[in-house]
Design a protein that fits this description.
Strand content: 25-35%
Low-confidence stretches: none
Mean pLDDT: 96
Structural class: alpha+beta
Oligomer: single chain
Radius of gyration: 19 Å
Shape: globular
Bound molecules: (R)-mevalonate
Number of helices: 9
Helix content: 25-40%
Order of helices and strands: EEEHEHHHEEEEHHHHEEHEE
Number of strands: 12
Length: 308
């Protein structure tokens, strides 16, 4: 028997713009996806034959990275599905780590590369931010420029993404789930189509890149007021990219009553929002009162883990 797990993630700045090569910052969160595997007589996942839609990331990982016999796979997840919290990336990365542990374990850069290819193939368009966070844990800054603390570089969609480790200070973040499930692939493709025909949307992508660069500095200085302002500006630009949702807007407005700033996190279209606050209990209660499912989020030091 072998087992592997990987964390979910939260994007602090730069989602969607990162697909166009603009910088972005993400941190791993303490909710993890885990998968166990033993040789079996036919491929099963959680006691049944695989479901082509529900298990598409596991199946895509197996298609390209498994030439052994049938496996009996068992999964467990604390990361909500289609909520903008990186469940598909954690599934892809943990599955690849599990599969490679049966022969030659992949090192983190190879896992990050393979995880990105799985997401790209399933979603059609993607950046490596979610999968790299699932591999590294902690927090990362992704940029088309190479800087200090480089972890690895990944090419795709005509971009080179340089993935860097960043030290984040202890942050007090509250995540509110809308409960509206949204698929990342169609949202990312919708932004591509919008940017191709609308100059304001194209300018929004660049402006988000500037915010991520500034956000990195504000975070490093522990300047929560500035960080919050930048989160609010990032949200406005995501609205220009048409990836927000009335329920997200409602949760964000409520959270801002006691937060430095708030924005959607991940692909949007529903999913989740995040608030930076020094009154986490108040923000959590306020969000619950209007129907959100709430998580108090801590940064997760551990990236992908394999237990042989
Ligand atoms: C989704 O978590 C983040 C997006 O930027 C898509 C991606 O980077 O692949 C929306």
């Amino acid at each position: 028997m072998a087992a592997a797990s990987a964390p979910g993630k939260l994007i602090l700045f730069g989602e969607h713009a990162v697909v166009f090569g603009e910088p972005a910052i993400a941190m791993a969160v303490s909710a993890r996806f885990g998968i166990e595997g033993t040789p079996g007589s036919a491929l099963t996942i959680d006691g049944a034959p695989p479901d082509p839609e529900r298990h598409r990331y596991i199946l895509k990982a197996m298609e390209h990275h498994w030439d052994g016999g049938p496996l009996t796979l068992t999964t467990r997840s604390a990361i909500p599905d289609s909520a903008g919290l990186g469940s598909s990336a954690a599934v892809s990365v943990a599955t690849l780590a599990l599969l490679s542990s049966f022969s030659t374990p992949k090192e983190p850069p190879a896992l990050a590369e393979a995880g990105y290819r799985v997401e790209l193939q399933v979603q059609g368009r993607a950046s490596p931010i979610d999968t790299s966070t699932a591999v590294h844990g902690q927090a990362i800054f992704v940029d088309s420029r190479r800087g200090d603390d480089l972890l690895w570089s990944i090419e795709g969609l005509g971009n080179v993404w340089h993935v860097h480790h960043v030290d984040l200070p202890e942050l007090s973040l509250v995540v509110g789930e809308t409960g509206i499930h949204a698929h990342t692939g169609p949202l990312v493709d919708g932004v591509r189509r919008l940017v191709e025909r609308d100059a304001e949307a194209a300018a929004a992508v660049e402006a988000i890149g500037d915010i991520s660069r500034e956000g990195r500095l504000a975070l490093a200085e522990g300047d929560w007021v500035r960080t919050g302002e930048l989160m609010d500006r990032n949200q406005k630009l995501l609205e220009t990219l048409q990836v927000s949702h009335p329920t997200l807007d409602k949760l964000i407005a409520k959270a801002r009553e006691h937060a430095y700033g708030a924005k959607l996190t991940g692909a949007g279209g529903g999913g989740s929002m995040v608030a930076l606050t020094d009154q986490p209990e108040t923000v959590a209660d306020d969000l619950r009162a209007i129907g959100a499912h709430v998580h108090m989020v801590r940064s997760e030091p551990l990236g992908v883990q394999v237990e042989a």
